[in-house]
Design brief:
single chain; alpha/beta; 9-stranded mixed β-sheet; 8-stranded parallel β-sheet; 31 strands; globular; Class_I_gatase-like; Family 10 glycosylhydrolase
């Protein structure tokens, strides 16, 4: 008998997303072999919704015109079950064919004039509205038919929210008006429109109700089965936390690869972001075997194998179980297969140790999550956090993400330092939790407009954390400014290591603040001077306004009154990265529990239990680390791993899990030291405590 805890053992996923013509030439044997060779223990297979790949009996459930009397979905389910795998059926309800649109116009998403919205990519099909009977009733019946007829453990819904913008269907208009008293907002993310925050809450509530309906329908037929919606790149942001706690056995996050200016560590951030919301839930990262280029959409193509391998590996190094997806069952380019097999095999080898040890860190970076959606244009862009994330990776400081809506004294307790890259929206309760955290000895590093707005986006006259920062706001944001610099003033660990420089690059958006009497100011802004003509390029006045403020009481605090994270992410100037690293190390007040020293760019994860500690090192040292696809893995130069031994422990043994070799351990000053050489993409140094 199958049990409801199956998600804990579904840790390597093969997803096959079928094209309409696949039933005519589906090679079930090939896909069975891929699942076997990759050691996949779970499969997600296209079943229905926009197109049915099984002999559905539901009117207007369009079935593939290439299917004939075959059952491709059933054949793939049988093959996966033959390998002892868990099986998930994929449905996609975001669009319908013309016959359904003609028969049920009430199902369709509409523009502000009430006109149905045609699909942006494929003419002749129509986008659906999630707040209509199509989702509530029709897709519920599709889900029930699949679960009733096939041996599946779950239903996975892609693009389950229907149309991504505001749908002005009659049913959506009526529901929103009845429940809130407002008309639907005229445009998205307009903080001046009182209907917008009401819409954000209403949409979250309605989508949560929808997931609950689908989950109940699945469980009604198979009590162990679950309904799993695709969560996009931001885990659970569109759902009520109580619903997630009640019905979500795992998160599946659809961040299939990187595009534009993105670092490979974005894969690992998926795991951290999900853990920052609900640390007890398994997290899956969907990785595509093709490139992610949103403008040109080469979905039926193959990315360089090393790019695919690196993306999967960095994801599982930080705790996200691997899940690959292939669009179109026809394999015109098989170069992705060895990359997936190798990455999945690595996961299978490391899983016994990594899955048994929880990820730990002394530093937490606050994740802005949902709050940024109240700011125009800020739904998916957080350059301040990107910059701080990059700086912490470069500095080899292990850290976790903490969701802003989970900012409580209890969630802060495990960390020694909290970082606010630009946490603009903080409510009184959140500010009080931070205030008490610092009073009890916690470190705080904060930048730019942190706490200048409440949780609803209303501006404050002064920082909500002014007493903690040791800074009072004198003038609001000024900028963007050019040619700004900050001067080193006095000796302090935060301005150490700049090689005798008297000043470094400053910010592009500045706040004028006054520093408190119990603070120190290791950097001050150089007053503006021209950047052209070149003959005018010199400072006229001495440094004046505080650019970095530090306080040391029960806890150590650093505040930067400018856009440090965003400007580092944009320009990647080394001094900004050093400034962030210096601040976090000083706020920590001691050497980190685990360090990895040596040249190169590496993403670290630390796991710990009562018997020992594991340091995972992912080698991101590559000319394509920030843009383009990785073509080859360049071996990491020798590294030194050191770990603080627990009180009373004087000895440890160490094993390299990827190299499958024991290595010597040297104990110096209460720390175990291991030399790491000849490393490729990933290594895990597993130390087990021993006593003399």
């Amino acid at each position: 008998m199958r049990t409801s805890d199956w998600p804990r053992t579904a840790t390597r996923w093969t997803q096959l997303t079928l094209a309409e013509d696949d039933p005519a030439h589906l090679d079930v044997g090939f896909w069975t072999e891929v699942m076997r060779e990759s050691r996949s223990n779970a499969a997600c297979i296209s079943a229905g919704g926009y197109i049915a790949y099984y002999p559905t009996r539901i009117p207007f459930h369009y079935r593939s015109s290439f299917m004939g009397d075959t059952d491709p979905f059933g054949a793939l389910v049988e093959a996966a079950r033959g390998l002892g795998m868990h099986v998930m059926a994929r449905v996609d309800p975001h669009a319908v064919h013309a016959d359904a649109a003609r028969a049920h116009p009430e199902w369709l998403a509409c523009d502000p004039q009430g006109e149905p919205i045609e699909h942006w990519s494929y003419p002749g099909i129509w986008l659906t509205c999630a707040f209509t009977g199509y989702h509530r009733e029709f897709i519920t019946e599709v889900t029930r038919e699949i679960v009733r007829e096939y041996d599946v453990d779950a239903v996975f819904a892609n693009r389950w929210e229907g149309y991504g913008g505001i749908s002005y269907s009659e049913e959506a208009r009526r529901s929103f008006r009845d429940e809130t008293g407002f008309e639907l907002p005229k445009r998205e993310r307009d903080p001046s429109d009182p209907a917008w925050p009401a819409y954000v809450a209403w949409r979250r509530r309605k989508l949560s109700d929808l997931v609950a309906i689908w989950d109940a329908a699945v469980k009604d037929l198979r009590p162990h089965a679950r309904f799993i919606p695709n969560l996009g790149g931001f885990a659970a942001r569109d759902l009520e936390p109580e619903l997630v706690r009640r019905v979500y056995p795992l998160f599946v996050v659809d961040k299939q690869g990187r595009s534009g200016i993105e670092a490979p560590w974005v894969a690992g951030r998926v795991a951290k972001r999900s853990r920052g919301l609900f640390p007890d839930r398994p997290i899956g990262l969907i990785a595509s075997v093709g490139p992610e280029h949103h403008q040109h959409r080469w979905k039926d193509s193959v990315a360089p194998p090393e790019e695919v391998r690196t993306w999967i590996v960095d994801g599982f190094a930080q705790g996200a179980f691997p899940w690959f997806t292939k669009f179109n069952a026809t394999v015109s380019d098989p170069r992705w297969v060895p990359a997936v097999v190798e990455a999945f095999d690595l996961h299978a080898r490391l899983e016994p140790v990594l899955s048994a040890m929880p990820v730990t860190a002394e530093v937490a970076l606050l994740d802005p999550g949902r709050a940024g959606k109240l700011v125009p244009g800020a739904a998916h862009s957080f350059p301040d956090e990107d910059g701080f994330y990059q700086a912490l990776v470069e500095a080899r400081i292990p850290f976790e993400l903490l969701a802003d809506q989970m900012l409580t004294a209890e969630r802060l307790r495990p960390y020694k330092v909290l970082v606010l890259a630009n946490a603009e929206h903080l409510g009184q309760a959140q500010c009080q939790a931070i205030r008490e955290y610092v009073a009890q000895g916690g470190g705080l590093v904060a930048a730019y407009q942190s706490s200048l707005y409440d949780e609803h986006g209303e501006p404050r006259a002064n920082f909500g954390l002014a007493d903690v920062f040791g800074a009072d706001l004198l003038e609001p944001v000024r900028g963007p400014v050019k040619n700004n610099y900050i001067a080193l003033t006095g000796d302090h660990p935060v301005n150490a290591g700049f090689g005798g420089a008297q000043r470094i690059i400053g910010g592009t958006r500045l706040l004028r603040v006054a520093a408190g009497e119990d603070t120190r100011v290791p950097f001050r802004f150089v007053p503006d001077f021209p950047d052209l003509p070149m003959e005018e390029l010199y400072a006229r006045q001495a440094p004046d306004a505080p650019a970095v403020i530090t306080r040391q009481g029960q806890g150590r605090v650093v505040y930067f009154p400018f856009d440090l994270g965003a400007v580092f992410w944009e320009a990647l100037q080394a001094d900004h990265g050093r400034l962030i690293a210096n601040a976090v190390r000083w706020a920590l007040g001691a050497e980190p529990e685990a360090t990895v020293r040596g040249p190169g760019l590496a993403d670290l994860a630390v796991r710990k239990d009562e018997r020992g500690l594991a340091v995972t090192v992912v080698n991101l040292t590559n000319p394509m680390a920030m843009r383009g696809a990785i073509r080859e893995t360049i071996p990491l130069p020798p590294q030194t791993v050191t770990v603080a031994l627990p009180p009373g422990v004087e000895e440890a043994t160490a094993r390299l899990l990827v190299a499958d070799a024991d290595v010597p351990v040297v104990v110096r000053d209460g720390r175990a030291e291991v030399e790491l050489t000849g490393m490729g993409l990933i290594e895990v140094v597993h130390l087990i405590w021993g006593r003399r």
